Each structure stands twice: as structure tokens, then as C-alpha cells.
Amino acid sequence: MTLQFKRSALEVVANAFADVLLPPVPMPPSQWATENLVVPDGPQAGAAWDLALTPYIKEPLDLLGPDSGVNQLAAMKSAQTGFTTLLIAAIGHSIDRDPCRMMIVQPTDAALSDFNRDKLQPAIESTKALKRKVAPQTSRSSEGSTTYSKKYPGGSLTLAIATSAADLRSKTIKKLLRDEIDQYPDDLDGQGDPIEISDGRLMSFLSSGDWKKVDISTPTIKGASKIEARYAAGDQRRWHVPCSHCDEEFVLEFGANFRFEQTFPHRAHYVSPCCGSIIEAHEKNALVRRGRWVATNPRPGAFPSYHFDTFSSPFVPWDEIAKAHISAGDDPQKLKTFWNLWLGLPYEIKGDAPDHKRLLERREEGITRGHVPSRGLMLVGAADVQMRGIWVEITAFAPNRESWVVDAFYIDGGTESFDAGAFERLAAQTIDREFPDAFGRKRRLDAFAIDSGYRSHVVYAWVRKNQRLHDITGRDTVLAVDGRDGWGKPPIGTPSLVDIDLAGHKVKKGCQLWPVGTWPLKGAFYADLRKEGLRSGGTSDPGGYCHFGSWLDETYFRQITAEYLADDVIRGKIRKFWKLKASERDNHLLDCRIYNLATAEYLGLSSLTDDEWAQIARIRGLPDDAWRPNLFTQLSAPPERPLPQPAPVAEAPKDDIFAKFASLNARN
């Protein structure tokens, strides 16, 4: 009988014997990466890792080596800086030169799959030193590697997710790498902080001091950011570069010394803080290569912590930073993105809404209930289901995120059944209703969201019954939504299929459930509420300004300002969260507005270009440039005409562009 072996299996066995007989020669991780690592993705994909391109990676990478004397470090960074490659290089060096049991934690299963598919596995396949040691990825052999486990002589790498306590508690490890920790939940189903749970995997090595831990992340919200706290606990190192004129060192950072033109070409440049000389954009990379890390807060017990952003990144031109800043304007959502992804800094949210009486005083007489204003090119609605009724808000948005309350009301009635009580009247007052616009045309909702947090299966059934594709957008008109706590959540996430009914039976086609990141949206909405416009003596209404008609009563304004940003101490750590004011009982219309914002993002509110908005106006049959504020701001609504008469806002009882929307919104 002739035995046949796969070549890859023989190679792994042979290499294992070789590794036992010939122990690896000590080598700093940065040297190993320079000699071995092939970059898995990005602009340098397929090329050998070049230390000269990202010199700032060398120090933190070498501190992850076995002989550095450092156990832990943290890096608070922006996007496009190369720090993910640091994780790949640290993993590769350990597999080849210091094999042991390791774990890398990603925030979600999707993030883990992307990391393995796009970064880790390609690096293993293209780096000879790793391919010869890591067992091939196969699902048919317990000896092979998988998406969730890489096996090699002397150890293994576990790929875990921060939302699984089983993953985080499963193994004793020597090295722990955590990526994008700001996306981790604060608490894992009542079992504790995933960061603290994963720290427990290192416990067996604490007495010997032979352990490593690294946290890397883009920050989110100031005071709530996990990586901000980790950075502050360390010695806070910044990348200092020498002035090209006087050699004094300073940090390239966003502020008064960064100069640019407001219009293209931006001609971004930097004024050195030491001698006032001009540093042109083309000089940046040469300066960065001469830079060094300097601890700005050294003290006993402080571990190395790093902050690095796009200003010193070789991958991001200064003109692009200027462009991003100009584009963000005063839009809270875009400003948060700019601070987080471009500056690598946490964004500060002012958590207090303006006094509801101030909003009541700035109501506008020219806004007619039930009518769409001239610049309201996007019309959405949202509902919040309660035990004895349903709250609804209809909102129109302009391209600059200005908003108008078109209607707000409460539908009284039971909510136990999707085809009786309040639900029986919901469609007629929302998705089947026609809204006159400022030009005499009739509009219907572009999308309608309904909160499924209460009476979930009734909501799913109502959505299935009333689902239809919008005749212009080509997308689902009715969305079942579910609010998600946390600062790292997008305005509207990837939907999941809900196809089991209350009786446990599978439902044909089911219902899509859309997750909504409510916390950042509330911060953005409250920032918009504080903006002052024409009625406060300003020269114009700024982007995001919220318009309210005189027909809205005090109940409406009390509800939309019913929450504030509170601090809570959880296991010794301060956490920021939204809390209902002690003086208020209801926040249903606030929830409706947040879901309206999410639904507008679903339609592309923040991603459509000016040309695309202009095309929307043409498809709607509106005059040219209808989206421009200076042209139609003064247009009044047509005379009041008969409308369906929903109940007034009152307290609940105690007990080709739109046709292209599918592709346009794929980028959201």
C-alpha cells in the first residue's frame, strides 16, 4: 500500500521538526517585519514592509518583542496610519520567533471575518516565514487553521470577538491584542466589561511578568472613549518632528498653525510654531522620517501610550485634511467623523439640550402643518409604539440637514394586533398619506421607520403587511428599527432578517430589522437644537438648523428635550450615557426624531452630492436649484388644504437619482 500525503501537511511537519532542532534566533520585531513581512492590503499591498515609510511604527512594534521589558501599550490613532499593520507584524514575529498562545480581539464577528480575510490570512499566505509554519486553513481537519484559530509549532492564535463571553474566557494566553476597543460594548450581557474579561486570560503569566497586551483604536466620544482612557493612563507619547528651518521639535497637529484656502486648490501648509517658517506639504514626509516619539506625561507606573493622526501619515495629503474639515462644516455627525478618523481624537458632545421654552419661543408662523417646505427634498417619518397608542413624527430634510417638523401626533388605541387599534390607522396617517409641497405637488414619505423595541412581533407583522418599494427610490419604504446603545454605533447599521413569529413559526420572507445607533444621533440632534438662525438675529439658518411650526405645543418640546448626557461609574470607570430628566416622563417624540435622522441617513442625507440633490429636485419636478437655501428660503407654503386629521400632540394615557438610491446608499 502506498501512503500519500498532501505536500502542505508534510511541509508543516518538517518545519515543526526543524523549529525544535533549530530554535529561532532573537530578532527585534521591526527587523523581522523588514526582512519577512509582505503588506497584505492598502496602497502597499503585495510589497515588502518598508520601515522607512512608517518609521513611527518601529518603537511600539519593538516594545511588543519578548526582550523589551514592556508588558503593555496603547495607541489612539486616526484612520490611514498603518497601525493595523503593527498588529500583523507583531503576530507574525511571535509566530516565527517567539511562538506562544495569543489572542486578538475584534469588536464584532463581521470585523473579525474582514480582518482575517483581508489582512491576516493574506499576510500569512504571502509571507514565506509564516506560510511555512501556520497550518493551512481548512474546515476538514482539527489540526488545520480556521478563520477563528491559527495553529503553528509552539502555540496558536485565537481570533475572538468582544461580544462573546465564551470567546474571551476560553483560553489562557500569553499575548493579548485588542483592535478598535472603542467599538466594544461596555457590558457583555451582564457578565462584565469585555476588556476586563479578556485581561483575565493573562492571569497565569502575571507573576512571571512574561506577558504582553496592546490596545489600538480610533477614539469616539470624549469621556466615553475606551482608548482615550487607555492613552491617558500611559505616558502619552506624540510624534515630534524637527523644523526644516531651525531644527526645533514640535508636533504636527490641527490648529492655528495649519493653514489652507477654503476653496480648491487648498494649498495646505504648516507654519512652524518655533520660528514661523512655512512648511510646504511636499516637505511633510521627509520631516516625518526624521521624527521621534516623545513622552508628554512621563511618570512612575505609566506604560507607553501613543497618539498618531493623519497629519504625520505618509498616506494622507494635507489638502485632503483641509477638504475634510471644510466639508464637515458645523455638521455634528461630520465633525465627529473628522475628529475621530482624521485627527484621532475623541469628539466632545455637549449633552444638554436647550431649555424647551426657548424652542417654544422660536416657533415660526409660516410653517403650515402637514405641508412640505420648499427645500424639504427628503421626507421621512417615524413611529414609537407604546401600550395604548403610537407616537409619530413626520420630518422634512434639506441637503444641508436643515429640518422641518411636517407633523407630529399621537394615535390613540391598542397595539396588541397589527391590524386593529392604533395600528389599523397608522398606514393611513403615514405611508398612505399625501403631503402637499410648496409648489402644489403631492408627496408621500420616502421612508418610514417604526420602533420594534415594544410589541416586536406585532411591529414585524405590520411591516410585512405594509412593505412596498418606493416608486422613486426603489428601496424599502417601511423599516422596522431597533435602537442600540453605545458610542461606536453608526446612525443606521446592517439589517438582520427576523423570520420567526411570536408562535415560533418561520415566516416566509420575514422582516428586515435595522439597528440604529441612537447615542451619537442624540448628540448630533441636541447640537443642532442649540444652533441659532434668522429668528435669533443671525444672517442665515445654518446647516442642521431645526424649524418648528407655531402649531406645535409645549408637550412636543418637553419630549424632544427630555434627556441629558449623564456620567455613571461602572466598576471604577466613568461612562457617559443618555438619561431621562427627573422632571420629565416621556421622550417618545425624541425617539421619533432620532429614528427620522437614521432613516434620512438610510436614504443618503450625509452622502449625496450637490449634483445628486439637484437631480432629485428635477425628478420631483421642482424648479432648478430648489435645494439652494438662498433661492427658496422665503417661499411660503400654499394655502391650507384638507388633510387627514390626526389627533393633536398630547400626552399619552398614563397607564435615475432616487432610482439610483440603491447604489448611492451602498456606501452608507
TrEMBL record:
Residues 136-149 have a biased composition (Polar residues). Residues 128-149 are annotated as: Disordered. GO terms for molecular function: ATP binding; ATP hydrolysis activity; endonuclease activity. InterPro entries: GpA_ATPase (IPR046453), GpA_endonuclease (IPR046454), P-loop_NTPase (IPR027417), Phage_lambda_GpA-like (IPR008866), TFA_Chaperone (IPR051220). Residues 305-606 form the Terminase large subunit GpA endonuclease domain. Signal peptide: none annotated. It holds the Pfam family GpA_ATPase. Residues 48-293 form the Phage terminase large subunit GpA ATPase domain. This is Terminase GpA. The lineage of its organism: Bacteria, Pseudomonadati, Pseudomonadota, Alphaproteobacteria, Hyphomicrobiales.
